[in-house]
Fold:
Amino acid sequence: MNPFEKIFNYQILSRLEDTGTFVVTAYERTWLKTMLEHPAANEAFTAETLLKLRQMLSMDIVMDTSEYLIEKALTQEKHVYHPLLRPLRRLISDRNGMKISFIVKDGRENVEHRGFPYKLEYSMVKREWYLLWFHMRHRTFMSTRIEQITSFSEQPISPKTADQILEKLSLIKHARKSEVCIEVVRDYNQELSRIMYAFSCFEKTVDYDEEHDKYQVRIHLPRDEYEFLLSKIRFLGKRVRVIKGDYLKKRMLEASTKALARYGIETMQLEEGLIPIESSLYTR
Amino acid sequence: MLMLMSGAYNRQQFAERLGISVHTFDKTTRRLKDIAAATSSQSHAEALDLIDAVRHTYYETSDPILLFLFRAKSLKESESARISIILETLHAQTMTAIELMDVCSSMPAELSIPDEKTIRSDLKYLEAVGAIRKESTTRPYRYRLHNDLLRELSEDELTDLFDFVNVMANTQVPSVQGYLLQDGLKKQLKHILPEDNPFIDPFLYKYHYHSRILDEVHLFTLLRAIRDRRRVQFLYFTPKAEKSYTAQQTNPLFERQSAGKQHKTLPLKIVYDHQYGRWYLLGMGREGIRKFRMEGMTHIEEAEAVSEEVYGRKTVELMEKLQTSWLIDTGKPIKVRARFYNPSAGEQHNFIKHRVLLQGQWGEIVEEDEESFIYVISVNGIYEIKPWLRSFGSSCEVLEPRQLRHEMIEEWKELHKYYESI
Structure:
C-alpha cells in the first residue's frame, strides 16, 4: 500500500475531473472495507446500502492494521457516529430551517425553538458531535451536543434568510478571534518538535528570533477555546510561557497559586475577581 | 519525502489546491529543510517557502490540509496525459489494449505516441492498483474502469458514503486512503448534483492534529515489513539533534548531528499517540526494545527476515512491557495516586470526573466524597502521565509516588515565577 502511487497524481486527477471521470483504487476500497467493520457503519447506512457496499467490496481485502497498530492515550469514544447525523446533515445540505428541542445545562428542556442548522462539529477532544445552529429568536449562534437534542423537525426558511445568517456567521467568525502569544522557554528548544505537535491543533504562526534563539507561537483563537488552550499550556508546563494574553497569564498565575496551595504551599494573595470564562458567544 | 516537494506543483497549483493553509506545517517544513540539507545538495528552500504564504482558517472545511503532498508524485507530461486518456476512455466503454492504442494515437502531437508495449504496461499498472479490471477471461482482454462505488450508488447513497468516509478518515487511523476516497466521492457528488442544490460538506473537526497524516507515509512500508517479519534499516533524526534551524547552520557540531544516524531494527508494533498526534515505531534491536518517532525516519529499506519463532517471542516480550505504558515507556510500573477536586458546587456538570473517566486509560477511581475523588493507576514511569496530570491545574494533587509529588510542586513553583510579576 503506497500512498504515493502515480495514480493519485494531481495532473492525472485534474485532467480526469474535466471529463467527469473518477477513479477508485484498490487502496481506497481496502480502507473502506476495513472501516465498514466498525460498528459506526450500521448507523451510517441503511441496511440495504450497507449490503450493497459489502457486495461491491467482496473481492477486496481487509487491512491488517489492527493486528500491528496500537493506539495510546485515546479518549474513550462516546460515539463516532450518531443516529441523528444522517437526518441533520440532510437539513443542512437542503439549507432548511428546523424546530429543535434540547436539554440545557441545568436539565431543563427547551422546546421547539426555531433555528437554522449550518454545521456538524466533532470534538476530537471530547469525542462527540455538536450541532452548530442559529437561534432565530435570540439571534445567537448556538452549539448543542447532539446527545442533548430530544427532537427536531423541518421548518422551511427562505433562501434569503439563510444567506443572511451565513453571511453574518462569516463576519463574526473572524471578529471573534484574538491573538495570544506563547514563547518556548529557551532551555526547552530541544523539545520544539514535541511542543509544536501539542499546538498543531490550533491556528498558529511560528516566529524564530535568531538573535536570542527563541521561538514564539502566535495562536489565533476565539475566546470560548481559551479553556482548551489553557489545558494545553498546563500540559506543557515549564516548557512554554504566555507572553501576550492577559487573561491567560492571570489564569496561569491563579492555577499555579491554587495548585501550590493544594500541596500546602502559600504564595502571594490571590488576585480578586477572577472568574472562569464562560462560553461567551456560544450558549449551550 | 523530498520528492514530494520537487516541483510537481507550481505556486499557483498549491494555492488552488489548498485555498487554505498549513499552519501546522511550520515545523514539518523546517524539518524537511533539515533533512534536505543533510541528505541532498539540492536546495528545496523555494518549494518550502510557499507554505508560509498560505493561510488557513478552521471552521471552513474538513479537508485535510496536507493531503496535497500525496498528490505530488512527479510524472512526465506524456505519461500523465496517456494514463488520463486511457482512464477517460475506459470510463465510457470497455476496450482492449489494441483499441486503446488507436485512441492514444490521437494524443497531442508534441507528446510522443505510445507503442503497444507501453499501453500494455500502463494497463498492467492500472489493474494492479485496482483502478481498472478485466471484463472477460478470454483474450483479447477487455478492460473497464473499476469504479462501481461511484457509479452504482444513488445520489442519496453516495451522500451517506461521503459522510461515512469523511467521519472515519477524520476520527480513525489510518486515514490517508480515506481522504483520497473522500476526494473522489466529493467530486462525483459535485458532478451529479443539480446546480440549485450544490454539494455542501457539513462537517467540522475541532482540535485536529493535521500533521498526523504526514507520518502515515511510512505506515504501510513498516506494516509490510512487520507482516513479512523483516528487519528494516533507515536513517533516523533524533529529537536531541534538533537545533535552531538557521542560527547554527555553520556550526560543525550541528553538521555532524544533522546527518542522521543509520539504524537497523526488527519492527514489531506501530503506536499512534493521541495525546500529541504522533506515530512511533517500536522494534527490537540488539540492545533490546527500541523506539523511534516516525517523523524522524527516512530512507526506510527492508532487510533480512527473522523466523516466526523469533518474531513471536520478541512481540510477546514487548507487549508485556507495553501493557502498562501511558504512551510507550517500557520502564518499571509505578503506582500513581492522585486526588482530583470536583468543580465548585455551583457547577452542575462534574467535568473533572468526566475527563478523568474518558482519558484516564486503565486507571481507576477508588475513593470518592463530595469534594474530591482518588484516582489510582499502575503505569510505567512517571514522565508520560505527568503532563496529563498537570493539565488539570489545581484540580489535581499528586499523592504518590513522592518523587512525582515533589516534581509537581517544583514545577508549579517555577510556573508561578513565570507569572507572578504580571
